[in-house]
Structure formats: structure tokens, C-alpha cells
Amino acid sequence: IVKTKELRKKIQYTGIGSMITIFIGGSFETAMAMSLAFMFIACMVLMHRNDNNKWYFIFITITLLIFIVISISAPGNKIRGGEDLLQFDKAGFLNIVVKTIMYGSNLIINSLQNPLLLLSTLIFIPVAYRLCQTNKIIMQYFAMHPVFIFVSIFVIICASYFPSAWVNHVPPRVSNQGYLFFLISWFVCIQSSVIYLVKREIYIELSKRFNTILKIMVILCLIPSLSNKTVGRAYSDLLTHKASRYSERIHEQYELIKNMRNSGRKNIILPNLFNDYKRYPLTIFYNYQPLTTDPKGAVNKIYARYWGVDSIRLTDTDAMDMLEKTRIN
User: Fold this and answer.
1) CA dist., res. 58 & res. 278, Å (int)
2) pLDDT in tens, 303-314
3) DSSP letters of 71-116?
4) What is the pLDDT of residues 193-245, one digit of tens each?
5) Residue 43: what pLDDT?
6) Contact at 8 Å (CB) between 157 and 108?
């Protein structure tokens, strides 16, 4: 099959990329799904530009199908999905596809409502125009139709939700990863749009007061951002050393579990991280799935599977329960 040196090089690069994807996706199936979707779209672009990429397309497709199974059956999904993990029916699959489209659409719509993103876009437009004039590499690799770029971004974000949607449980970290990807990709799309306009000799004349307008917008956007509770929590946890103490306790818990496991314990009981709920950092609490006193809890089962023991649970969750009741949203 591999008749040309160029095709062999492509397959080698794809193999290396696939191994990196497995390494990342072994612990984070979202990253694996996004990487695979990106490789598939890149392959379609190659097919469009050069008709001699048929076998490369087949290779990518087979690799994609194999890795879909790997990403769906990742440790976290395996526990959440249970015995029904790899069962398939057409109606259920169609329902999953619709869900991923809805998740992807909601993420993009919510992201575009961010005033700081819109402000950054305005600032980036003259930069993108300057790059078109001075950087040949930018012109070479980003000279694609902006609609195609945006659709590709949408498809990749939707694909990132697929493994979690399959088991009907989408943790917040999936949206966080998709949001980060969209922020980066959005500026790629803007760069592509500017190149598209420049090539058609359509130029945007910036107002002489453009800089003044930007300064006013920066002030208007920073006011709500600085008053944002999440930003305030982050600085509070950092300056009061709650985050560093939490990190120390997590490492201590890790070593405790490791020592208990090595000593032959199959049912591990752990103390709570803190006895005083005020010592928990709120920044982490809002993005944290804690262990509970129930060994059959989802997080407890994941811990037990990871450490190779029968069960893991906490002695009590009084501090966490109090934090749940008293926290300020």
C-alpha cells in the first residue's frame, strides 16, 4: 500500500501523533477526542488538495474508529457507563449525536457572550492584518475559508463531548477543555477571515479614534471582571495560603492511600482533609468531586479502581457538609 516516500512520511507522523494522543487521552478522553477530530479534518483537507491521499484517508479512518472505542472505554467512562458501556443502537446513537451538537452549540454561544473575548477580537484584528503583510507562513497555512475553519472548530468541540455523552455523564472538565480550545481557535478563525478579505482586496479602514475606543472598552470590560466572584476567590485562596495547604493535604492523602495499599489493605478508610470547613479553598471546591463516606459513590469507585483495592471511603464529611451549607455562591 505504501508506495511513495511522501505517504510513508505522513503515516510515520500520524503514528507519532496517535501515540501522543493515546498518552494524553489515557487519562483525559476529551483531549483524545479533540485530537482525533482534528486529525480527521486535516486529512479531509489533504484529500481536497491532493487526490493521492486515498490510502492515508483510510489509515486515519481506521485509526479513528479504534481510538473511539479506547476513548469511550476510558477508566472514568467505564465506571460511569457500567455494563451498558459499549452497547449500540441506532436511536441511542442518534440521540448522542444530537446531544453533542447541543453541547457544542451552547458552549460557543456562551463563549461569544464574553465581553473580554469580543474586546480581544477587536484588538487582534489590526494585529492579524499586520501578520498578513509580514509573515508568509501565516499566509500559507491560514489561507482557508473562514467558514470552513469555524465549522471545523464546531465539529472538534462537539467531538470532545462524545465520550462523556455516550455514558450520559458530562463532567465540567469537558466544557472547560472545550472552552480553552475555542478561545485559541477563535483567533485562528479571525486570522483566516482577515486573510480571506485581504486576498479579495477588501480592506477595513480603522477609525482614527480606534485606540481611544479600545481604552474605553477595556475599562468597561474590566469592571465586571474584577468584581467577578471567581477571580476574587482565586486571589483569596492564593494570598491566604489555602490553596497551598490543600495541595499539601492532597499529597499526604496520596501517600497514605499508597502505604495502606502496599501493606495489603483492601478496604481503605481515610480521614477528611480538613476538620474545619473554613480551611477549604473555595476555588477548588467549586471544581472538585470529593470522596464520600459511601464506598459505592462514583468518585470512590474511581479511586478504588485506580489503586487496585476493593473500596475507599472517608470516615466523615462533616466539614464538607458544613461548607456546602454555608458557602456563598
Assistant:
1) 56
2) 898 899 999 999
3) HHTSHHHHHHHGGGTT---HHHHHHHHHHHHHHHHHHHHHHHT-HH
4) 888 888 887 766 665 666 676 677 667 666 666 566 777 777 788 888 888 89
5) 66
6) yes
Q: How many angstroms separate the CA atoms of 278 and 325, rounded? A: 12
Burial 161-189 (b: 16+ CB within 10 A, else e): bbbbbbbeebeeebbebbeebbeebbebb
Specify the range with the lowest mean pLDDT, choosing from 53-67, 274-288, 295-309: 53-67
| Nearest of 65, 50, 44 to residue 148 by alpha carbon | 44
- The two counts, helices (H) then strands (E), for the chain are 15, 2
Phi, psi (5° rounding) for residue 281? -75, 125
DSSP 314: E
CA distance 232 to 328: 12
Q: What is the pTM of this model?
A: 0.56
CA 188 to chain centre: 17
Cell of 163: 465520550
For residue 259, the model assigns a pLDDT of 93
Provide mean pLDDT across the span 164-173. 75
Cα 228 from chain centroid? Answer: 22
Q: In terms of C-beta distances under 8 Å and separation of at least 24 residues, what long-range contacts does 211-220 make, across chains too?
A: 214/119, 214/122, 214/123, 217/119, 217/122, 218/119, 220/115
